[in-house]
Design a protein that fits this description.
The protein has helices spanning 2-13, 19-22, 70-79, 120-128, 178-181, 223-227, 229-241, 257-268, 281-290, 305-315, 333-342, 363-368, 383-392, 411-419; strands at 25-33, 36-45, 50-54, 60-64, 80-89, 92-99, 108-117, 130-131, 134-135, 140-141, 145-153, 165-168, 171-172, 192-193, 206-210, 214-216, 250-253, 274-277, 295-297, 323-328, 343-351, 372-375, 402-406, 425-429. With 432 residues, the chain is α/β, with parallel strands linked by helices.
Length: 432
């Protein structure tokens, strides 16, 4: 903080030494790039019309701003009580105090956020500023895997009350298009999804949702587990897309959070043999414990996709003809290719992971086997409530996925850890 001392000296020597400045409170807001604070604004919080911008080099530029009345200042103090974790640009995050969101519709509810998980998409926006057509063009609050407590309800809300604990389904569709009316609202082209540009996310003290996108949590499901209903719902949707039936053999490529949850849901759906595939041995060892009775497989270097598929089947005493269901939750091209070769004729393949926009795909193998090939995107009608039921009934234990818990003020460090591949699922507590 030597630059602050130097700035104080310059202010004094330049004649800015009257008590309204030097005895005022100091308000710092930091903008971060990686783990370093690159810029700080020193705001001299007085009724004066001048404040000073101070850079880390010690230079300053007095600027004039409109004078606020004491009434306006008091109103600001009452309104700005919504601490938020904001992505300003690539690798540039900051904590901000934003207005508490208002209920704009009679069926809206205000939720006090208590727990939020870090998703790979959050990290991707931090490092790249875009996912496909969704491009960060303005500051955006991060986060979408959240649970909280109802703080306020609109006049037409019938199913929730203040104090209820809920998991947040963070995407609100238009409700009117053919996809919405058909129950596939995850495909709505007018979807307003949290932490997807231009919409703010849930890493804040408060967030507003319609009541029917808040799923009540049973008494035996914690708020931490509630935050993990979002990724679990993704796993539920993938398993439903695959139409997994009791006794069927399933191979899941990718032992990240989604791949693990797909395996767990497949087990809950009654699948027979389950094999999890990854190149990370540590994650595979965890997968073998998390998905009861699951086998694991590390692809062998130097083998083709067809050869690795054959080796996998042999290693786990599966029929040479292949398995019933294959899911790719990695987005890696070799995994996608191997998935097609590991399936039996008439099998089902679901693409869940998003990787390169275009890849080399074994289309002849797919056609010759007459495979059912599906994509999977987020979650749709019934997925969230089924996810809650799976946890409440003990069929899926999401608590095992939690490898980190941090306070809200440590959110940036938590993002850095996830960016570096540490842990499986990190939870950020809501602002106090």
């Amino acid at each position: 903080m030597s630059w602050l001392v130097e700035t104080h000296r310059r202010l004094w020597s330049s004649g800015i030494r009257s008590s309204p400045f030097l005895h005022s409170s100091l308000d710092f807001s930091f903008t971060s790039s990686s783990n370093l604070c690159s810029y700080a604004r020193l705001r001299l919080a007085t009724p004066s019309t001048t404040f000073v911008d101070v850079t880390t080099t010690g230079s300053y530029t007095p600027r004039t701003v409109p004078e606020r009345s004491s009434r306006t200042t008091a109103a600001m103090a009452q309104t700005f009580q919504n601490k938020s974790f904001v992505l300003n640009s690539v690798n540039n995050v900051a904590f901000e105090d934003r207005p508490i969101p208002t209920l704009t519709n009679p069926t809206d509810v205000l939720i006090e956020i208590k727990q939020t998980g870090i998703c790979g998409s959050d990290v991707h926006y931090c490092t790249h500023g875009a996912i496909g057509p969704f491009i960060l063009r303005a500051p955006m609050v991060l986060g979408h895997e959240s649970a909280g407590i109802i703080s306020q309800v609109g006049p037409a809300v019938k199913t929730l009350k203040v104090g209820d604990r809920v998991a947040l389904e963070p995407g609100v569709p238009c409700r009117h298009c053919p996809r919405c009316k058909g129950g596939h609202y995850n495909l709505c082209v007018d979807m307003k999804f949290a932490a997807t540009p231009p919409y703010d996310g849930t890493l804040a003290k408060y967030y507003v949702l319609p009541e029917d996108f808040c799923v009540p949590l049973p008494s035996n499901v914690s708020l931490e587990e509630g935050a993990l209903m979002e990724p679990l719902s993704v796993g539920v949707h993938i398993a439903r897309q695959a139409s997994i039936k009791p006794g069927e053999s399933v191979v899941v490529f990718g032992a990240g959070p989604i791949g693990l949850l797909v395996g767990a849901v497949a087990r809950a759906f009654g699948a027979g043999k389950i094999v999890i595939v990854d190149i990370n041995e540590e994650r595979l060892n965890f997968a073998a414990k998390f998905v009861q009775g699951a086998g694991i497989y590390i692809p062998q270097k130097g083998l083709s996709a067809a050869e690795n598929a054959a080796a996998l089947l042999k290693a786990h005493n599966l029929p040479e003809t292949g398995v019933d269901v294959a899911v790719d939750a990695s987005g890696a091209t070799p995994s996608i290719q191997t998935s097609i070769y590991v399936l039996r004729t008439g099998g089902t393949y679901v693409q869940a992971g998003m990787g390169a926009p275009e890849i080399q795909f074994p289309i002849v193998e797919m056609c010759a086997k007459e495979l059912t090939v599906k994509g999977s995107f987020r979650y749709a009608e019934g997925d969230y409530r089924l996810a809650v039921e799976l946890v409440a009934s003990g069929k899926v234990d999401v608590k095992q996925l939690i490898t980190g818990r941090v306070k809200f003020e440590d959110a940036e460090e938590a993002f850095e850890a996830v960016k570096n591949g540490k842990g499986i699922k990190t939870l950020i507590a809501g602002p106090e």
